[in-house]
């Protein structure tokens, strides 16, 4: 008797159903955690513009305003790994409570100081406000495995997280401009302080921040940055940050060159809209291939998306072109943060997440500085800095891809490792 060969074929598991964001948002505490993280993170997007407005209103130079805003941004990036380690060791209430109070105090001091008359104290206070930025992104990142159990839903939660941060950078500057028009400069910085404190309080009011306990482990001095895979991801995000920082200068230069001042805000907004769209589409399903392959493909798309700006397109086309790299930005962040689940021990997840956030911010500062050195008469030069940052990120992913071959390290549970390969 002959048995049909069809009987010997292995049964394929059905592909996981696409995650619905409303299912994730319906889970207990998800909405509160997301809202608290978004509101508490608004000062990061509000402060640079608020500082610029405050200095100019006080009669200070544009140079001083730019220096103080840069000091704030650099300090905010540098402080994140420090607070991430504090969070890993002592939990959310200590790390977020202490930093939120310190940052709020610094913003209030800056609001009632004359920055033009006291530039040195203003720089110290701006640095303190940035350095004490609460590690809300890292704090939310370590809670997702405890709040969202399904691997598919966890990926969707990460996408919602990344997209929510885009809303921060769209809404933050608009909020500053609206507050300045209605209330005046002093109240803008005061409102920045109040918003940050309110967001941190809302985040800490969620039950998971009280029930989550740090893992009892000893951390070496270098912490998770010793892990080659984390260094690879951090370096790649530094390159992506260069692109983002340079595109801000591209937008400003394009607005001056085409006598279209709206481009300085519309191009960054289009980039954020692209990232919001790409993140929502990417997070709806589990994609095939290893994380290293996914990161390479997304990095290549990010590079290709940055190239049209080299042609110095007309204003309308420039806005449309800015959407293209944005489509790959949130997927790059989602995949990178998702990979941390099995690249680093769970006891250092907050600090590892903070390193990625810090390197992205440092890259933005470097990209802005490098593009600012290019003469305004060379439009392709600033766009070339943006493209070079994306190329650097892709190159670093390519040469370090073997470190992104994920194996569960000691201290990481198998529930964290499941969703990364796209198949079980």
Word description of this protein:
With 424 residues, the protein is mainly α. It folds into two domains: 30-149 and 171-214, Growth Hormone, Chain: A (Up-down Bundle), CATH 1.20.1250.20; 225-424, Growth Hormone, Chain: A. Helices cover 73% and strands 0% of the residues. The protein has helices at residues 21-25, 30-57, 62-90, 92-111, 119-131, 136-147, 151-182, 185-204, 207-211, 228-257, 263-282, 291-306, 315-343, 349-372, 379-399, 414-417. Helix 4 (92-111) runs antiparallel to helix 5 (119-131), helix 4 packs antiparallel against helix 8 (185-204) and helix 6 packs across helix 14 (349-372). Mean pLDDT is 83; it is low at 1-10 and 407-424.
Describe the structure concisely.
The chain is mostly helical and 424 residues long.
The top-level CATH class of the largest domain is Mainly Alpha
Tally of individual domains: 2
Mean pLDDT: 83
CATH topology of the largest domain: Growth Hormone, Chain: A
**Overall number of strands:** 0
Poorly predicted ranges (pLDDT <50, ≥5 residues)?
1-10, 407-424
Secondary-structure element string: HHHHHHHHHHHHHHHH
Which class of secondary structure composition applies to the elements? mainly alpha
The proportion of residues forming helix, as a percent range, comes to: over 70%
| CA-based gyration radius | 22 Å
Summarize the main sheet. none
Approximately how much beta-strand content do the residues carry?
Answer: under 5%
How far is it from the N-terminal to the C-terminal residue, by CA?
A: 35 Å
Quaternary form: single chain
* Total DSSP helices: 16
- Write the CATH architecture name of the largest domain: Up-down Bundle
Name the overall outline: globular
């Amino acid at each position: 008797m002959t048995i049909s060969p069809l009987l010997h074929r292995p049964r394929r598991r059905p592909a996981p159903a696409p995650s619905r964001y409303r299912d994730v948002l319906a889970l207990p505490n998800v909405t509160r955690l997301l809202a608290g993280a978004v509101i508490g993170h608004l000062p990061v997007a509000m402060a640079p513009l608020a500082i610029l407005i405050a200095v100019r209103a006080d009669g200070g130079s544009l140079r001083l305003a730019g220096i103080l805003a840069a000091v704030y941004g650099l300090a905010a990036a540098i402080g994140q790994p420090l607070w991430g380690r504090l969070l890993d060791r002592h939990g959310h209430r200590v790390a977020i409570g202490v930093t939120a109070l310190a940052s709020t105090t610094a913003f209030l001091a800056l609001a009632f100081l004359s920055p033009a008359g006291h530039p040195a104290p203003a720089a110290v206070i701006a640095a303190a406000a940035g350095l004490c930025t609460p590690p809300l992104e890292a704090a939310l990142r370590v809670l997702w495995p405890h709040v969202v159990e399904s691997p598919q839903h966890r990926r969707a939660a990460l996408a919602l997280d990344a997209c929510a941060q885009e809303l921060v950078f769209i809404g933050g500057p608009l909020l500053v401009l609206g507050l300045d028009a209605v209330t005046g400069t002093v109240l803008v910085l005061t409102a920045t302080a109040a918003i940050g404190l309110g967001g941190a309080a809302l985040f800490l009011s969620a039950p998971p921040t009280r029930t989550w306990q740090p893992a009892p482990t000893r951390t070496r001095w270098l912490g998770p940055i010793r892990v080659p895979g984390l260094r690879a991801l951090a370096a790649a995000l530094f390159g992506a940050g260069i692109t983002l920082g340079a595109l801000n200068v591209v937008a400003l230069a394009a607005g001056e060159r085409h006598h279209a001042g709206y481009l300085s805000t519309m191009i960054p907004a289009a980039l954020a809209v692209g990232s919001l769209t790409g993140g929502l589409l990417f997070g709806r399903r589990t994609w095939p291939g290893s994380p290293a392959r996914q990161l390479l493909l997304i990095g290549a798309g990010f590079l290709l998306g940055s190239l049209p700006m080299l042609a110095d397109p007309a204003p309308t086309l420039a806005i449309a072109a800015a959407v293209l790299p944005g489509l790959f930005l949130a997927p790059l962040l989602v995949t990178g943060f998702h990979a941390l689940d099995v690249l680093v021990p769970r006891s250092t997840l907050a600090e590892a997440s903070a390193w990625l956030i810090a390197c992205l911010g440092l890259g933005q500062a470097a990209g802005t500085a490098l593009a600012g050195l290019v003469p305004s008469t060379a439009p392709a030069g600033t766009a070339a800095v943006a493209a070079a940052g994306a190329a650097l990120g892709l190159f670093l992913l390519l040469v370090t891809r073997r470190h992104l071959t994920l194996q569960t390290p000691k201290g990481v549970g198998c529930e964290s490792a499941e969703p990364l390969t796209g198949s079980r």
